[in-house]
Write a structure and sequence with these properties.
Butyryl-CoA Dehydrogenase, subunit A, domain 2, binds flavin-adenine dinucleotide, Butyryl-CoA Dehydrogenase, subunit A, domain 3, four-stranded antiparallel beta sheet, Butyryl-Coa Dehydrogenase, subunit A, domain 1, about 375 residues, four-stranded mixed beta sheet, alpha+beta, globular, 10 strands
Amino acid sequence: MDFGFSEEQLELYEAVQEFCDDVLAPKAEETDAKGEFPWDNVKQMAQMDLFGIPVPEEYGGMGLSWMDWAVVGEQLAHACTTSGAVFAAHMLCMYPIMAFGSEEQKQKYLTPLATGEKIGAMGLTEPDVGSDAGSVKTKAKLVGDEYLLNGTKIFITNGGAAETYVVIANANPEKGMRGLTAFIVEKGMEGFEIGKNEKKMGFPSVPNTELIFQDARVPRENVLGREGRGFRVAMDLLDVGRIGMAIGAVGLAQKAYDDGVAYSLVREQFGQKISEFQAIQHQIADMAMEIEAGRLLARKAAWCKDNGSPELSKIAAMAKVYTSEVCARVCNRAVNIHGGHGYICDHAVQRYLRESKLFELVEGTSEIQRNVIALEVLKEAISQRK
Ligand SMILES: Cc1cc2nc3c(=O)[nH]c(=O)nc-3n(C[C@H](O)[C@H](O)[C@H](O)COP(=O)(O)OP(=O)(O)OC[C@H]3O[C@@H](n4cnc5c(N)ncnc54)[C@H](O)[C@@H]3O)c2cc1C
């Protein structure tokens, strides 16, 4: 299904596919195993202008759609999950500046992010603040023309590699979540340090670090939107983040499926290819069906973003929870199809299974997505009864 893509769109996807096939995919294992930020890949992605796909041309972007961003993000995740993750996390910083930034902030911060000259990251999570994003404890106190930030963020994707950070802190704790404020923070600002980089179950080349603020001096003009708007900024960026996770999950699931099917076509047991066993065929059928459904949902979420649909939060949450759970199931089945060989590191499917878990946990766990969906559908049901 080509979704009525234009010639220009198809040309872009073809160029990205060539890059994926020639550059990213052949060294995906090495990129993962190195445990280092994939600067080479990132530089080439920047040369192709991929980071700025939905950013207006006046700020160095390509001025294309969220659908284009979604299609390309899936291609990247399919070829190299590490590069796909960097690509998605970068948007968590770029999007809020695009949506809430002043003209000066866009000129100064959005343009180098869109061109990929600088990498971005977003800091919301703290040691005691995860799903309950409204209870952020990092404080921001206005002193003269600067805010002093104090607190610690954890697990921040692209931490350390990024030069630009969107950070949520509370500038007015007595107001609770209405005190939350989003700040643009630059690497190197006085009082801002990068802390430990976590060891994880997968994605060793994608940094997930602490951000430590000790009287970090952030100029007043770096407030995004206005003071007290941080919760809204966070919720809006999470809608986009969930599309990013959904396309990553579809890309990874497709890769695990491809490897599983390829193996089933060559592995022989009981004198026949294992793809000839109906038990294997049914697993393949379920995988193909669920990936297709997940892709449609992820693209519907991108469509909602492009068209300013009021259904965006609901569909993005549906896309995120569905695709992440499909991805985990598909990766598990891909290991099963490989039998014991799937547990051995010579095959990448064991890595995919480890990586798949991430998509269920970040940008809101599956439980939180279901809370969002239930809230939205019940709101709709109640309004229809009136
Ligand atoms: C690899 C990785 C990358 C990340 N990248 C970033 C990043 O770039 N920026 C950033 O800010 N954060 C990032 N995070 C943080 C991530 O978004 C959080 O870990 C996630 O939101 C869950 O928060 P938590 O870990 O504190 O879990 P908790 O909130 O403590 O949840 C624990 C369990 O309780 C459940 N639970 C909590 N509340 C409810 C509820 N109301 N109803 C039902 N169940 C509930 C959860 O679903 C979960 O099962 C990253 C995390 C990881 C692991």
